[in-house]
Amino acid sequence: MNDWWRDAVIYQVYPRSFADGNGDGTGDLTGLTGKLGYLKELGVDAIWLSPFYTSPLADGGYDVADYRDVDPRFGTLADFDEMIARAHELGIKVIVDVVPNHSSSAHPWFQEALEGRNRERYIFRDRPNDWESVFGGSAWTQVADGQWYLHLFDPTQPDLNWENPEVRAEFLDILRFWLERGVDGFRVDVAHGMIKADGFPDVGPREGCQVELLEQERLPYFDQDRVHEIYREWRPLLDEYDAMAVAEAWVESPQRLARYIGPDELHQAFNFDFMMADFDAKSFRVIIDKSLAEAELVGAPTTWVLSNHDKYRHVTRYGSLARAKAATLLMLALPGSAYVYNGEELGLDEVLDLPPELREDPAFLRTGHSRDGCRVPLPWSTGAWPNPWLPQPERWHAITAEIQESDPDSTLNFYRAAIRLRRGFGGGILWLDAPDGVLFFRRGDRQVVVNISEHPVPLSGNVLIASGPLTAGGELPPDTAAWLG
Ligand code: GLC
Description:
Elements: E1 9-13, H1 15-18, H2 29-34, H3 36-42, E2 46-49, E3 53-54, E4 66-70, H4 77-89, E5 93-98, H5 108-114, E6 124-125, E7 140-142, E8 148-150, H6 165-180, E9 185-188, H7 227-240, E10 244-247, H8 254-258, E11 268-269, H9 272-276, H10 281-298, E12 303-305, H11 314-318, H12 321-333, E13 337-341, H13 362-367, H14 401-405, H15 411-422, E14 430-431, E15 438-443, E16 446-451, E17 463-466, E18 480-484
Alpha-D-glucopyranose binds at residues 59, 62, 99, 153, 189-190, 248, 309-310.
């Protein structure tokens, strides 16, 4: 079996914000095709595309109206074919998002359901229960004839009824459609959501919102055991095309997460614990150890991720570019695969001051928290994106890809060098003694030092790469990481 994904660097493309091929202010597939050379040079093994399917974009495309077509704002199926052919020519694999938990309310199936036909493809009830939407408020919306439908996310994202064989057959067919077009795998959106507990039991009165309970207990609408039947049904199809799948599953423990992975289910699951860790040596170490132990248990390597389209960019979470680069060097030194989110290689930070009227995230409308700030279009060069769908901050003019290209000390060239050097790592990690606040381990014939303490640490060995300048005496300053070999 072809298991390229085991130690791959996978670059997440948010198509709307990555590159604009036709100058209309919205990113698109031809824009992406034009940047594949850039991605090749960055050294990534694969790209994962967030949804580019026909959609009202009520949730940035995670509200799909036609699973077998490209939204005209992003291009056409022919553009997709051209993109994937070019990517494969360059040796870059292509993973696409599949959104099976819910469709868009604009999907013809839901439109029929609203007219009172074939409602059993969704979850309609005469009375709502107390379940809450991840985006805030009740998870139920009433339709004109008095029934209610379930939407774990926005009301424009009705949950599909996975108890209905027609829904199951439809998704097998959708997967096959994209496999036939040559995709190398799928990222499964809300992979823990499709099956709901029998009888739709209430969660019961709780402090705060229900989704905060996720890490402590199993909610009746997430991570139900029978969801695994679905992946066992998908796996032979994936195997037929030698394709992989990675789960986005928010569950209460690494043990529960491990259940999604295996020879008869999915290949990987995102390890969000690493992304959620504080910038602190102890938290990183605990999570790394836990993740590696779990990975061992299921015989599949873990994944690492620091930024994506749902969370504040790690430059902003950690408070500085220096810290973000140190964390990146840590991530890229770990065994398993690393997911890099578009723009992190430029050192982009979160855009926190977007005017409220420009914010589109449905979560913002319902909760006041917005994910728009990590979705601002990438600064390729000054003027490259005349009228971006979200405005780029002035400060990004100094860190465009064009400027960074020719600066050997830029974040972009740092990412390129680190991704290239990463290939020289092999084997597991062995922790070495280090002062408080310092992560220090050996992997093969290399050593990795991450200084999260307040004092510089001496280095012994040949520095292959560092995330920032060393002190005059050759020591590793605070908030800096290095690979030695
Ligand atoms: C996933 C996506 C997120 C989306 C949600 C609903 O969590 O990453 O962007 O809003 O699913 O589809």
